[in-house]
Design brief:
Length: 151
């Protein structure tokens, strides 16, 4: 009876370890492209397709009059990855599979392209990862920043 339990436990442990190895192999990111094997397979199977992608219009810096960060990102992505996008101005009430939009909070289905980052400079070498960690700190801003905030 004990031998059967040991054999069953050994088999379960082996299957678990094999599962971890397979998972790590498929989700390991390439150091040059930061793409996984699954990402590369998807790209390879869609290289000959023109992919419709909606871009929210008239958002300064991100997309304004057909120029901006999103268009530059897509151009670099097309050049480096090899996909081709049909860039469509985003219209209300249209539902497309792929689109770019600016949101305050991403949902679990969103692919985050850019997140704002802020830096706190202090004499102490401490890293803050969330706003709750700086709850009781006194934070100041540079005088030049305050002068430019009215513009």
């Amino acid at each position: 009876m004990k031998k059967k339990k040991i054999i069953i436990i050994s088999i379960i442990v082996c299957l678990f370890l094999i599962g971890i190895v397979v998972y790590l192999a498929f989700t390991k990111k390439d150091k040059n492209t930061m793409l996984t094997i699954l990402d590369k397979q998807w790209i390879e199977s869609h290289k000959n397709n023109l992919i419709d992608i909606e871009i929210e219009t008239d958002v300064p810096i991100f997309n304004y009059n057909g120029q901006g960060v999103l268009f530059e990102f897509l151009a670099d992505f097309e050049k480096n990855i090899g996909l081709e996008f049909n860039k469509i101005p985003k219209k209300n009430n249209d539902e497309k599979k792929y689109s770019f939009s600016i949101v305050d909070k991403a949902s679990k289905d969103d692919l985050v392209v850019y997140t704002d980052n802020y830096v706190i400079v202090s004499l102490k070498q401490k890293k803050y990862s969330s706003l709750s960690e700086i709850n009781n700190l006194t934070i100041g801003v540079l005088k030049d920043t305050l002068e430019n905030s009215d513009k």
